[in-house]
Write a structure and sequence with these properties.
This protein has a two-stranded antiparallel sheet with strand order 1-2. The protein is mainly α and 249 residues long. 52% of the residues lie in helices and 2% in strands. The protein contains six helices and two strands, in the order βααααβαα. Mean pLDDT is 82; it is low at 20-30 and 229-249.
Length: 249
């Protein structure tokens, strides 16, 4: 005798417990927004260095009037009487010899200053939020203007770094023609250390701006694996290192 197999009239309800929930994947780069936020050290360095570079540029371009005995020397450029004795490139020996390197560097300083001011203008005009780092609030800028600001910052930082290194290498391979008359202590404290700031801090800024550029490219390219893309930053979600495709909720 053949029996008939019975089928349940209703299917059991689905199990929606958290342990059975479908795994989800972090937001893709298309859902993220990249932003550039300068570090507190970058802002501090620009606040200190820009007035000094402008001061220095006017001295170089204004020679001989800004040099000792000139009509613009006192009181604004009185400190350069000492520095011109430490580095003859800023003193009478180089000027009377017609050495053009100091003037060329001074004109590059002008270009450098314009670019830094351009960066600050774009950042303050198109950025959003407050810039009170002490309170944990940071101003940021995104989109095309953010990319332009980052490009300005990176390029001019590289210019500052390269120009200062070139200045030091030129002096080295010239047999320390303009600074070799100083004692070791005087050379270190009045020439090496002051110029060293214009190497160390721009190198840091190259790293900071370059990191932001790489992060932006990683977000734009939906890069899940390469080292520059493995980051965690305010406003950007780190990519999953698990290559297994995961479903969205």
């Amino acid at each position: 005798m053949v029996s008939t197999r019975n089928h349940p009239s209703n299917f059991p309800p689905p199990d929606l417990s958290p342990s059975k929930a479908v795994a989800t994947r972090p937001k893709s780069s298309s859902d993220q927004q990249w932003t550039h936020t300068p570090t507190a050290l970058t802002i501090l360095w620009l606040a200190v260095s820009l007035p000094l570079v402008i001061w220095d540029s006017v001295y170089v371009v204004g020679r001989p009037h800004t040099m000792p005995g000139g009509k613009w020397h006192e009181p604004l450029y009185t400190p350069y009487a000492l520095y011109g004795e430490v580095d003859y490139g800023y003193g009478w020996p180089a000027y009377e010899a017609g050495n053009g390197f100091t003037m060329a560097q001074g004109l590059m300083n002008v270009l450098e200053t314009i670019c830094y001011l351009g960066y600050l203008f774009v950042f303050w005009k198109y950025g959003e939020g407050q810039c009170t780092y002490a309170e944990g609030q940071q101003r940021s800028i995104g989109g095309g203007w953010g990319g332009l600001a980052c490009l300005f910052g990176y390029s001019v930082s590289l210019l500052t770094f390269s120009k200062t290194v070139l200045y030091a290498l030129n002096e080295h391979f010239s047999g320390y023609h303009y600074v070799g008359h100083n004692s070791a202590a005087r050379l270190i404290f009045l020439w090496v250390l002051p110029n060293g700031f214009w190497i160390i801090l721009p190198a840091y800024m190259i790293y900071a701006f370059g990191t932001d550029i790489l992060q932006g490219l990683a977000v734009a390219g939906d890069d899940h694996s390469s080292k520059p893309a493995e980051f965690t930053k305010s406003g950007a979600i780190p990519f999953s290192k698990d290559p297994t495709p995961m479903k969205r909720e």
